[in-house]
Amino acid sequence: MHISEGVLSAPALIGGASAAAAxxxxxxxxxxxxxxxxxxxxxxxxxxxxxxHIPLGPASVHLxxxxxxxxxxxxxxxxxxxxxxxxxxxxxxxxxxxxxxxNTLTMGLPAIxxxxxxxKSMRSKSDVLAIISGFLTGVLGVFLASILVALFLVTTGEAxxxxxxxxxxxxxxxxxxxxxxxxxIIVVIKKIRPEILGGVE
Length: 201
Fold this sequence. Notes:
This protein is an all-alpha fold.
């Protein structure tokens, strides 16, 4: 769901970068020394998840895993996403350096929302509740990210309106797939290392 270089207007880029910088700064302040390995592993997972992607006009379609990352990391998801996206931009030219802030924001905000909505239910003893919450987390993380990408495209110009709609529609299969993947991973984590689902508020 990377937005490519040379697409967004200057106000959209500046606004997105400023908001992302605030999220990254707050996330870094929340990271404890013992959380560093967890942040590094999730950042690596985020990096790998979108390596297989399908270009879609000024954006792309791929797995995101932002909802899952948000559940596990809380606010620390912002620096984890930023690092993953930075390496993708430098190594593979996915997205770009000028759109790095916007891309971090569009994936980070839904991740934080998923954390606040579902983190408590993930820590409950009910596996059924965890499965349902995990599925909703995967779906909502992708859905909200696609909405934010569409909004950034539309605010740049009405010419991107059709592309914005296409971005949302094209991510419907990804929403379902991420919902299934997130549910599976959450159930496994609850059985093996339930303390991982702590997050950072």
